[in-house]
Amino acid sequence: MRILLIEDDKNLSAIIAEQLQKEGYLTDCCYDGEMALSYALNPGFSYDIVLLDRMLPIIDGLTVLKAMRRKKVWTPVILITGLGEVDHKIEGLDCGADDYLVKPFHIKELFARIRALVRRPAEVVTDHLISAAGLTLDTGLRRLNFGSRFVFLTQKETSVLQVLMKEPENTHTREELLWKVWGSAAEVESGNVDNYIHFLRKRLRELNCPTEIKTVYGAGYRLEGDL
């Protein structure tokens, strides 16, 4: 697996790259946003994961991330930063990051997050197009349509919504969503599910869509609309 590491602190970058390579990951390193864009937007590199520092010289990490998503580069991105406030995390995830890791962190946690992102449970990726509750989800493009309007989703947003849309009449527990999206051995917290439900509700509002993701208290989540 090939990883793009974008970190302006060259000492830290060297330490992380060494550990990644010991785990068998092929690793390319960038030290500023301009260099990062030239690597991240080059289709010839075909990265499996991008580890992106938020605070970069020349071009900041969020701008790099937004440029990737505008160019339809959907490579999973873990945003790495010293900014750990909830609003900072939400901003990064809303810009298209798939995960968020706050410095300082243990290298084992980074490995766990990489494993969680590259895991692709069969239940989540079998269908290309799914329609339910007035919505159409293209899992290949990660595009959600309502009528003539559409938004692009992150990898995890797509996976969570896919579970909900495949069985829209059912209530899905947090544990079920964790298992189907992150995998049975995923080292993630159940609060991740709540975060992605929050993001998906925002996407539905962007579409001006009457379909809702309803919280069934004590049970989980389900789609509520014209099923």
Task: Give a verbal description of the structure.
The chain has a five-stranded parallel sheet with strand order 2-1-3-4-5, sandwiched between helices. Strands 6-7-8-9 form a four-stranded antiparallel sheet, covered by helices on one side. Strands 10-11 form a two-stranded antiparallel sheet. By secondary structure, it is of the alpha/beta class. Helix 4 (86-94) links the parallel strand 4 (77-81) and strand 5. It is globular. The chain has helices at 10-22, 33-40, 61-70, 86-94, 107-118, 122-125, 155-166, 174-182, 191-206, and strands spanning 2-6, 26-30, 49-53, 77-81, 99-102, 129-132, 135-138, 143-146, 149-152, 212-216, 220-224. It folds into two domains: 2-118, Response regulator (Rossmann fold, 3-Layer(aba) Sandwich); 123-224, Orthogonal Bundle (Arc Repressor Mutant, subunit A), CATH 1.10.10.10. 41% of the residues lie in helices and 22% in strands.
The helix/strand order is EHEHEHEHEHHEEEEHHHEE
Structural class: alpha/beta
CATH C-level of the largest domain: Alpha Beta
| Shape descriptor | globular
The percent of residues in helical segments reads: 40-55%
Sheet with the most strands: spatial strand order: 2-1-3-4-5
| Count of the domains | 2
